[in-house]
């Protein structure tokens, strides 16, 4: 029997989102219905609403979520009703070239639910990042569910499903930040702050936060930044070099996604250092670099996709570290809101007032 629940829909390009009743089918083979307890509001949800990701409206928004498995379909053995899970948008297939070569974080053969959720008139919904969790319940592939310690607060756990994982993973997985390293993070929004927190977890000795907004630098300090640089008033490359005995940082993480900040990251790294691009550029962006500088400075230029995470490995670990008081995920939650407040949350995000607004059910 299909169920009816309340959910937030983006009906058309740039149209305001609205709360609607949707229909959720019973889980089919390999699928699960999850009762959502919390879901963070991410920039990507706004990009869906603006038509920047796909034109397959209407979208069922929300993808940074945690909840409890309500029912599972045939053949599902990895999760069971009652399990507390974090949802992920990268259920790896285990069979593609990336998976078989041991690089499952580059699996693009994502497993989503095969059945569709619909509006009451039968119109099929496109769930954001294959999840759609601004809803009392949602239908996903069971591989999108990762069991974690049920004692953790849902509004904190859900954040690991996207932005916070992207930032922490940029530091610990992609950047391979090590004990005693110096790290610089350029752009300290939610993703950059998570990269700061990840660098602290990894034991970095110096963590230099760079932003153009002093409010962001204050928050970055709470996440573990040991030094801050306002790049509106100070040349960040010179400042990072000065703070690292003239060398540059071992790892520089770019969390803005712009050519000028990438160029700063490139020159702020130590010889043989690592640059990690986690900010997402737009298709028109270009950057010219002297090839001799690429050659002469050595090291590696990497990009980080969803923090190069493995949900089954990283979600439970980060929840446990949070529960032990070694990673303050609660610091990322600026406010909790209701399902009807998402338009206002988008506006506050745009103004740079919040790290994360989280819908709680
Ligand atoms: N130099 C330094 N910091 C900058 C600059 C700049 N030129 N321009 C913007 N910033 C800062 C902003 O002040 C803000 O603190 O970068 C931060 C960006 O943060 P958010 O807008 O909150 O974005 P966030 O969610 O952190 O995502 C950052 O990662 O996943 C991607 O698509 C996402 O590209 C985006 C990036
Ligand atoms: Zn795969
Ligand atoms: Zn997201």
UniProtKB/TrEMBL annotation:
CDD domains on file: Zn_ADH_class_III (cd08279)
Enzyme Commission number: 1.1.1.306
Keyword Metal-binding recorded: yes
Highest taxon in the source lineage: Bacteria
Keyword Coiled coil among record annotations: no
Major enzyme class: oxidoreductase
Required co-factors: Zn(2+)
GO terms, molecular function: mycothiol-dependent formaldehyde dehydrogenase activity
Enoyl reductase (ER) domain ranges (all copies): 12-359
Keywords recorded for this protein, A-Z: Metal-binding, Oxidoreductase, Zinc
Recorded family membership: Belongs to the zinc-containing alcohol dehydrogenase family.
UniProt xrefs under NCBIfam families: mycoS_dep_FDH
Protein name: S-(Hydroxymethyl)mycothiol dehydrogenase
Source organism phylogeny: Bacteria, Bacillati, Actinomycetota, Actinomycetes, Kitasatosporales
């Amino acid at each position: 029997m299909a169920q009816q629940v309340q959910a937030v829909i983006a009906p058309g390009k740039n149209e305001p989102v609205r709360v609607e009743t949707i229909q959720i089918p019973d889980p089919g083979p390999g699928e699960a219905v999850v009762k959502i307890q919390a879901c963070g509001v991410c920039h990507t949800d706004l990009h869906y609403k603006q038509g920047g990701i796909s034109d397959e409206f209407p979208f069922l928004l929300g993808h940074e979520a945690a909840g409890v498995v309500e029912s599972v379909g045939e053949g599902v053995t990895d999760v069971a009703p009652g399990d507390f899970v974090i949802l992920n948008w990268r259920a790896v297939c285990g069979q593609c070239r990336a998976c078989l070569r041991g690089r499952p974080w580059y699996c693009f053969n994502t497993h989503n639910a095969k059945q569709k959720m619909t509006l009451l008139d039968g119109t099929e919904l496109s769930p954001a990042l294959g999840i759609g969790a601004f809803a009392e319940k949602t239908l996903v592939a069971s591989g999108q569910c990762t069991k974690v310690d049920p004692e953790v607060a849902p509004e904190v756990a859900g954040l690991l499903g996207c932005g916070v994982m992207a930032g922490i993973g940029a530091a610990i997985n992609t950047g391979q930040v090590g004990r005693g390293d110096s790290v610089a993070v350029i752009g300290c929004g939610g993703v950059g702050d998570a990269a700061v927190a990840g660098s602290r977890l990894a034991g970095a000795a110096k963590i230099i936060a760079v932003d153009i907004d002093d409010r962001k630098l204050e928050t970055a300090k709470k996440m573990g930044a040991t030094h801050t640089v306002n790049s509106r008033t100070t040349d960040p490359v010179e400042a990072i070099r000065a703070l690292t005995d003239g060398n540059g940082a071992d790892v520089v993480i770019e969390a803005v996604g712009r050519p000028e900040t990438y160029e700063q990251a490139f020159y702020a790294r130590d010889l043989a250092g690592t640059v990690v691009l986690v900010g997402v550029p737009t298709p028109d962006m270009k950057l010219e670099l002297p090839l001799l500088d690429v050659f002469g400075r050595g090291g590696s230029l990497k990009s980080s996709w969803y923090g190069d995470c493995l949900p089954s490995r990283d979600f439970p670990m980060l929840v446990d570290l949070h529960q032990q008081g070694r990673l303050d995920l609660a610091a990322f939650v600026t406010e909790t809101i209701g399902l009807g407040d998402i338009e206002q949350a988008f506006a506050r995000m745009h103004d740079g007032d919040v790290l994360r607004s989280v819908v709680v059910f």
